[in-house]
Amino acid sequence: MSKQHPDVPFAITLDIGSSLANRTGNWRTERPVYLDRLPPCNNACPAGENIQAWLGQAEEGDYEAAWREVMRNNPLPAIMGRACYHPCEGACNRSALDEVINIHAVERFLGDQAIEKNWGPAVEAAPSGKKVLVIGAGPSGLSAAFHLRCQGHTVTIHEAGPVPGGMMRFGIPAYRLPRDIVQAEIDRILAMGVALELNHTVEDIQTEMKNGGFDACFLAIGAHLAKRVDIPTPDAGKILDAIGLLREMETSDNPPLLGRRVVVYGGGNTAIDAARTAKRLGAEQAIIVYRRTREMMPAHDFEVDEALAEGVILNWLTTIKEIDDSGSFVVEKMVLNDEGWPEPTGEFDTIEADSLVLALGQNVDTGFIAKVPGVEIAKDGVIQVGPDMMTGFEGLFAGGDMVPSERTVTVAVGHGKKAARHIDAWLRGERYEHPPRHELADTDKLNTWYYADAPKTVQPELDVIRRQTSFDEVHHGLDETNALYEARRCLSCGNCFECDNCYGVCPDNAVIKLGPGKRFEFNYDYCKGCGICAAECPCGAIEMIPETV
Amino acid sequence: MSDMTAEQKVKFYQKGTFTAGNRLVDQARRSVQASMERSNAITSGHRACQGCGEALGARYALDAAMRATEGQLIAVNATGCLEVFTTPYPETSWQVPWIHSLFGNAAAVASGVAAAMRVKGREQVRVVAQGGDGGTTDIGFGCLSGMFERNDDVLYICYDNEAYMNTGVQRSSATPPTARTATTPAVGPEPGNVFGTGKNLPLIAMAHNIPYVATASVANLHDLERKVEKAVAIRGARYIHIFVPCPLGWGSASHDTIRIARLASECGLFPLFEAEHGEVTGSIPIRRKVPVEEYLRPQKRFAHLFKDGGGERIARLQRMADANIKRFDLLREAEEAPL
Question: What kind of fold does domain B2-12+20-327 have according to CATH?
C-alpha cells in the first residue's frame, strides 16, 4: 500500500476455511453417539407394538403407514384400541409433563380408518409349503394365524364355537367392543387365505394333526370354564356364572332372565362386565359383592368408575354365605387382618336379590390336552409352555389364557405373535432369537424443556341413560383433528425425531445434518466432546461414552 | 407486550415445540440453525473451549443476520475471546466478511465501514459490530456510546460471559455481584465481586433512545434469531446483548452451557426483553420458575455462596431476580402458544 513499505499489506488476510486444519476432535475425552432407546410404551406393550414409531407416522398424517406399523405386531388395531387395558399409557413418560398420551384412542382411530378405507395386509413371503393348525379363533389364535400366514405358511383354524372371536365376543360386552368391529378385523385375517372351520371341536390333537397333514399346531382355546364356589341354596336355578351369562348374550336370541335385583360375586373385570350387562338388561339393582376392598379389586379402576357411574353398587369386604329358605342372600362382613387378608367378622347381614352371578375366574378345559404325551399341566390347571411357547410335545405350541400369564386380549395377541415366530423358526429347523432389547428411555433421559404443554384429549362418552339401557358403545372415537393432536403429543422417547437440536446447539459445527429421514451424524474430526448435544437432546437419543486412550 | 410471542402460531401442539427445527412445520418457520443452508459464520476448527457459549451465540447471531441480509453483511470484531479463538494466525474460522482492529474501537470501525458503504452507494450491505462484555462495557464503551448517540447504522452485538475470559477471568463491569474471578477472589467479608458495582448496558443503550435494544440468550434460539432479524430490518444504531455462559470462567460443566443460560432467564437474573426508542416493548415470560440457587449451584464461581454465611448473599441475588421479574413482567401467562 504505502510507498515506503510496498511489501507490507494494509491488513493481514486469512483464507476462508483455514481453521479446518485444526482438528479439534483430538481434545475429546468423551464422544457423543446416537442411539435408539426403548420407549416405555413399547416396553409395556404385551403385544410388542412399536407404539412410538406408529405415533410418529400418525403425527405426520400418514395414517395408513401408521396402521401398517401397528399391523406388524398386532393384527387387531380397532379391537385393541377398545379392549386393551393400555399398559403403554401407564408407562408413558408424558405423565411427568402433564398427562399421558391417549395411545389407545389413536390406535382405535387408525383401526377404524383401516376398516373404513379397506386397507388390507399383503402376504409377501413365498409359500413355505408347511401347514399349521390353530385351535381356537380367539385373539391368540387369530394373531398366530395372521403372523404365520404372513410368514408364508398355510393356516387352518379349528374353532369349537359357532362364531370366531373367542373372548372378544363371549367375554367382552358389546358396549365395550362392537361386534361389527370384531367381525371386520377377523374377516381381514381370513381374507389373507386363512381357513376357518367353525363348530369344529378338537378332541384328539395328534389324530387331528395327522389326518390334516399339519406340521405344527398352535393351541389357544382360552379359559372358559367358570370357577364355582359352593353356596348353599334352596334354588340352584338362581345361580349362574358370569362367563356363561356373557356368552349367552352372544349366542341366544333371548337375553338371560336375571330378575330385577342382581348380585354379582367377584372383583375382576368379568364381574364388572356382568354387573354392567345386568344393568343394561333392565336390572334395577346390580350389586357387586367382593370379599376384599375396592383398592384390591383386580378390575381396572376406570371400569369400576364407569360401572359406578352407571349405577352399579359396590359392596366390598363381604362374602356370600348362603341363600336362605326365604331367598335372602346371607352375607358376612369381612375385615382386613394385619397382613392385608380379609378375615370373617362374624357379623351377618342379608341382601334381597333375584339372582346370583358368579364371576370368580375361569379354568382351562385341559381334558383333551392332558392326553397328549409330554404335555405338562402347571398349577392352576394351565398348560406349561417353554420360553418358545412350545408344550412338552414337539411341534405343539400354546398361548393365550390357557398358559400361565395375565389373561388379557393383548397378552393373548402377543402370545400369538411370539408363538408364530417360534413355530416359523421350528418349521425351518431353527430357533428364533429375539434381538437384544435397547436400554429403556426413562424420564431422566429426556430434556422435557423442549416440549410444549399440551393436555390430553378426552374421548367423549355416551350419556349415562343410554349406557344403562343399551349396548351401544360407551366410548366414542377421536376424529382426525384430535387424533392428530394426540399423536403429536408423543415425546418420541429414546428415538431421534429430527428436531435439529443437536445440529443447532453444537458450538463446533460438528454435527452433520443428513437431510429429512436420514437423521444426523457426528464429525469426530472437530467434535470436542462438550456434551451439549446429549444434554439438549429432548428425547434422549444421544449418549456420551468415554474415549479409549 | 404481545408481539414477542405472536410471531408463530401453529395449529397443533407438536413434540419438540421449542427445539431448533421441527419436521412438521414449513422450512420458513424453522430456525436458521435447523437449516442445512445456514452460513456457519464460524466454522469448525476454532479454538474455543469445549461447550463455549460465545462460539455458539456468535454463530446463532451472525447466521441469522446473514439470512436476513441475504449474505450482504460485514462483521467488525473487538478483541476478546471471540477474536482470539477464531483467528489465531494463520487460521480463521470466519466464513463471513470480517475485520478486526483493536480492543476498544469496534463500534467506531463499524461506524466507519457503514459510512464507507453509504458513500460507495452500497447501503444494502449491513454492518454488525461484535465484542465480548469487556470490549463492550469497559474498553469499547466510549466508542459504543458515540455510535449510539450519532445513531450510526450499525447493529452492535455484545456476547456477555461476565468477565475477561481470554486473559484469565478478570472482572469486568458486567461481572455479577458475588461472582469469583481472578481479580475478585472469594475471600474476606464480601467474597467475590461486590454488590452495587457494574453496569447494565442494555438499559444504558436504551437511555440513548436508539431505535432498538434487546437481550437474548443461547438458551432461546428462536427468540435470539427473531431479534437479530428484527434488528437487521431497522436502520440506525441497534444493540443486542446476548447471554453466553463460559464453562471455563464460570466453573461449569461443558455440557451445561445451555442449561445454565436457561436457568439464568428462568430464575429472573437475566431477563429477556426488547425495547424501541427507549421504551420496553416486550419480554419473554418465565415458563418454569426456579429459585436463583438452581442457577448459581452448578457454577464454581458461586461455590462460596453455598458455604457458611452465603444465605444472605443468595437472598440478595434473589431480590435482584425478583426485581427483574417485576420490572419486565416475567411471570405473566404466555399470551399464545409459541412455535
Answer: Rossmann fold (3.40.50)
